[in-house]
Design brief:
Blueprint lengths: L2 H35 L6 H26 L12
Helix pairs in contact: 1-2
């Protein structure tokens, strides 16, 4: 695998992490909102666990994607003085 293929794969994975993170957070919020209005046919504890885990997983994926986009701090500048 060449460098260009790895680089494009990294950009795809980063955008996929951000997109799927947002998707999981929206679906988790939707599950919690439906449970609050009483429109779901599953038990309340199961809906809260499902919605909470989807939101937590979405935040983790979104954070991983954003972390890959942000520039890394370089600590070697402070050691040159």
């Amino acid at each position: 695998m060449s460098y260009e293929e790895r680089k494009s794969n990294r950009y795809f994975r980063t955008s996929l992490d951000i997109g799927m993170g947002i998707f999981y957070m929206v679906i988790g919020g939707y599950v919690l909102a439906l449970q609050s209005f009483g429109n779901m046919k599953i038990p309340a504890f199961a809906a809260y666990i499902l919605g909470g885990m989807m939101i937590i997983g979405g935040v983790a994926r979104f954070y991983r994607g954003i972390k890959a986009v942000l520039p890394k701090k370089n600590n070697s500048d402070s050691s040159n003085t």
